[in-house]
Predict the structure.
Amino acid sequence: MSLLCTGTIGIDTIVTPTGHAERVLGGSCTYFAAAASFYGPVRIVAAAGDDFPPEFHKTLTSFKQIDTQGLEIRKGSKTFAWGGKYHANMNSRETLFTELGVLGEKPPTVPAVYRDSKFVFLANSHPAVQLGLLESVPGKTLAVADTMDLWIKIARPELQVLLRKIDGLVLNYDEAELLTGKSNSVSAAKAILEMGPRFVVVKKGEHGALLIHRDGLCALPAYPAEQVIDPTGAGDTFAGGMMGSLAASKSSSADAGSFQNVRASLAHGTVVASFNIEAFSLDRLKTLTRAELDKRYAEFVAMVRV
C-alpha cells in the first residue's frame, strides 16, 4: 500500500568521536524514506532551498522506490541546516547550530496524486504543521507521528489535538517523561494512550524500544552493533523500517495497526537502523542490499526468540 512521509530534508554537519562529516545529506524525511524504500514505494513531502546540492537529489532518487514529486525546491530560499556533536558514549549530543531556512516558511503542499495514500508518517515538525498535512490525506488507513521536546514545551495544545487524530506516536523516553510527567517509560506510554493513540513506541537508543499498545506490550532490544560511526537518523530509519514493513504487510486495512503487526514491524525498524549507524549520512544505506538486510533480520529474530 502507498506510504507517505512528511518531514525535513536537510544539510548536516556531524562531529563524532569517530570522525567528522561536513555538509552531508540529512533530515528526518530523508532517513525515513531511505529506510522505508527497502520495503516498498514511499512518497515524500518536504521542502528545500535552491542551495540544495544536485548530488543530494540524485542520492534520494538512487533509492528506486522513493517518489520525490512532493519535494519542493524553493528559489531564493535556504535548505534547513543542522550541526551536532556527539559525546564519547554516542548516547548524547549537543547542537552546534540550527539554520531553519525553509522550515521558517509555509509548509510544503501534499500533491494531489499523493492524497490517496493509506499509510502516513508525520516526521518531527511543529504539530500544527503535522495536523495540516494529515488533513490532506483523508483516506488514510494508518497515521503515525514523531515529536520532540521542543513541541512538548511550546506547542502542547496543538500536540494534544494531534494525538487524538493519529493511530501511533513514536518518541524517546525523555520525551515521554516530559509529556506525561512520569519517569517510568511504561507508565508514561500508558498515559499517552489515554490522550488518543492506539499505540506508543518509546525509543531507548542502545537499549532498544518499547511498544505499548491498547492490546498488549512488548520490549525489543537493539541489534548488538560492534561499531557505531554516526547515530544521526537512527530513530528516523527505525521509523522508516517500521512503517515500511507495515505498509508492505498483506494484512487487511483494519488490521494494519494491530498489536501483532506493529510488534513484528519493530524488528524491521531495529535492523535497518543498525545498518544506518555504520556510516555518516546515507552512506551505508546507499550500499545496503536486500540480501544483507534479510540476513541480519533473520539473525536478529533468532537472537530475540525465547
